[in-house]
## 1
Amino acid sequence: MTFSPASRASVVIFSGPRATIQNSAALRTSQSVRQARGLAGADESLPESLRAQQLAAPVTAYVKAFSAHPLEKDAQELYGPVDGWVDPASGEFSADERDGWTPVYEVTLDPAKGPFPLPYAATQANGEPWDGPFDDDGTARQLFYPDASRIVAEIDRFGLDGYGGNNLMSGVADFDFVRAAPSGGYTKGQPAAERTDSALLGSEHGDLPPEVLGEDFFPYMPMRQEPALPTLAALTNIVYDTLTDGDYDGAIWLEGSPTTEETVYWLNLVIPTRRPLIGNCSQYGHGVFGNDGDHNLVQSVNYIASGVWADEQGDDRVGAVMIQNGQVFTSREVQKADARPGGYIAYGGHGGIVGNTVEDPVLSFVPVARHTFTSALRLDRLPDAVPGLNGDAVVTRDEAGHLRPEAMPKVTIARYVNYGQDDFSDSADSEVEILARIEKNLRDHPLSGLVAEGSAPYGGVYESMRAALLKGVFRGMPVVAVGRGGGGYAFGQSTIGGLFIRGSNLSAPKARILLMACLLKFGALPLPADPEAPTPAELDAIRAAVAEYQTIFDTH
């Protein structure tokens, strides 16, 4: 399909783990309810706090005329007639003007047009007001939304452009919502008729079974649950199926701000989409003062709809990106540097910000790294099995072409620090953390490797660390060398005679992601008969395998 910028965009939004962009502030019982019921914290001097909620039935409201702006009344000759007048004491309405009555506009609030900003009336089961996420017994409520449908609805109704217009998302695109590894979950399940997420195409959209914290959904507050390697396999399969089967003009991935960059780079490597794939996150929760996430979402939809990303064939020429605070970052180079809006930088010292979305989306240059449908690591072209550390084949994909969670590669990071050696012996025996990881990999992770974050900028490491890392190489674990700081390209000492992979200008976390994907393509390095004394021929075989890895690191 050739993308037409004039057409209405079709966008799928994936919900990922620990996503502040889908995190709401705690619902607190409103002042009007506290005062009416005599609850704790009632204070007539405090303003009402309004939260987005649904009406159960149509409501007629009388809005005081000229109350939307302090200077409306000063220019009331510019306005048409009001709808009537209301007695401020009794609330009686009259279509005819009466002395002392308040001019009003009559509006009907339709539940289908909601949500609306309304006082929050709920209390705890014991009758006490809600003052945060926990009740008086310490039981927590969920703060994260289960999918992005509610966020889109609230942005459309409450978000305004510079000219007062709303409908900033649905006015541009149609949306599907997919819960790939969501932050919030339905612990009691959800009937099919109430579901707001989109079932995978080709499957039945049935009842959602009860979901388990830490297995099916992953918040970071009030209780933190981290996704694990099997989660990465599961979400990859969901994204792959959705974008393969669905005719979308673009996709958005939502995740927590410290880690979005890693997941989006992974998807950039393995998902063969020809349309934009955008990572969005937020430093502040949805609805919180100063929230940046809503703005990022709107700009991502505009980026997709603009077609600025398309080449002459209508394919994405940029690859997966993150759009944060008006800047378009490549997924390869983006890094969170500070917990504030705008706290993202282009890591690596050689570009990374390829455009902006402040006004109409524009690109300033196009990256050369292979990505998405041009990637050599795309899921649909990976082998079904690769050699493991023990010499046996590791089956990485099932009959449907999906990643098998139990086969996901384990890659860990070892860091160089000054004065890091125990003594002057240069012995690998002192590097107990690296050696322990090697032993655990041999027991539990037939596909595994290490990233050595060496000195800036070239990735050099001290002798005992080098010796320990080589023990991993000689047991089948590829090692990638990168420099901390990201300003240069790892080479020199870090290559160790062609036995380490040069990690280019990648950060250690990004090198880890790329090595994980490479392990799914190439598997373990050749195994010497005696890992403590590999022969020249065995070393040459290892170097040849490392060279294959190197080709990927030089181009992705």
## 2
Amino acid sequence: MEEDRRSAARGGALAEEMASWVGARIDAAHANPATGLVALAVYAGARRVLGAGIGPRVAGVGILPRLPRLRAGGAHPLLAAMRAHLVGRRVLAIEVRGDGVAVIAGDLSTVKNDQDDELPGEAGSAAAAAAPAPGLSLAAPAPGLGPGSPAPGLSLAAPAPGLSPGSPAPGLGPAPAAAARLELAPGRRGEVRLLDGAGNLILRWPPQGSAPPAEIAYPEDPLAAGAALVEASDDAAAGQEKAALARAVKARRAALERRAEAVRGDLGRLGSVARLQKTGQLLLAQGARVPRGAAKALLDDWETGGKIEVALDPARPAKAQAEAFFAKARRYQRGEAVMRARLAETERALEAIAALEADVAAAEARPEALEPLAQRARSLGVARAEIAGAGAAVAGEPGAAGGARAPRAGRTAPRRPFHAYRSASGVAILVGRGAEDNDALTTKHARPHDLWLHAKGVAGSHVVVPLPKGASCPADVLVDAATLAAHFSDARGEAVCEVSYVQRRYVRKPRGAAPGAVVFDREKVIAVRIEGARLSRLLATKEEG
């Protein structure tokens, strides 16, 4: 019984702090679903903020000294619903109850008009003058009363015409149709409910529902409790943000290491240039002796006195295939400068990302310390969504919590069948990672109105430019995409390459065709000259899949 009295007194302390809020305008609604802090700000002579922690990271209720620094973006469904139904309206009434806090918001003129509609004529006008002020009990549960029962002496409602502010009101019946009701049930497994004036559920968060405690433990000092609540939420969110940033930087370092290894492998092939040239010369000199339709040939090696076995295309004369060996040798030689420049650029990026990784590990988990590091990470090719995906984001930051769902702890994001690059104007260009990945990119990810490209007449990656429906591809983006299509094909190293492009709707995958093999109609062709500066710029924007 004594504990019940203390609980009622603590609820009364919160109610007393919020007494002046009735009639005030709701200025803002914020939340950090990752930590569970929900905040509702009103202007009652000064800004006042009600905070409720519904878990999993923070729990409790109090008056916040400020808005949380780390919170979800406005696209989050909880934020969008609260802002649509609460922000800009007036507080009609507040309940401090055993099972949570409820705030009813609406337009005071709407309430008055609803009452007038119920009291027509002159008799109705006289009755309206004598009617009590509209409102809802602002009260904490008293001993012996169930949750939601008003405690004696704690009644307060919005003033109606003819009544002075603060005049007591016995309470409201059903809320007017234009009103909205926000119910906050704090606790580690608490929840938020938003209802319309008729009591219909608009939104419940978490969506699957939860099991809020039957009785709320209200603080004796709502102001101190609110200060602790907002600090705990920001600390927890910043810790998550630091961990997400560290994972994203580590993944970027691993991707750069793979890229450097691949480029070193390409440079290693330069040692085969002399062999390719020699094979071409021998085939040109001895090809006339090779039977037509042969799949391989044994050529005399004049330097060593031995034999060289060469794989051939049975459909073509052997002598005519000598040029293919010369062409491959030329591609390797022409691509050497680009490959060496890319390797140097990648090694510089690796040094920078390693330094960033050390700085992130040493940084304090505070927004002001993490944001400069996040900017450095973005400049080094870390995707914005990867940085903010698992933690809360600074207010207004795209990619905030509530956007794309991050993988759960211990799970890795699903592998994409493509790598994404960016044109100079920021348009995404998707490049298939292999034969089967090409099929997945073209048949599962690309939309019918997207642009599809492929190096003409040679094996290579499928390239897709996502476009808005009905839009055409800008010329600079087309050249960038064609450059990537040429680079990621057997035409790599050629000075000029022809690239086919069509809308994805005209590309078909024949039944039983080999991985990556497609046919297409309405082909257009662009002859793209490979510019080293353009190619280097594009490759530097790579976003790992």
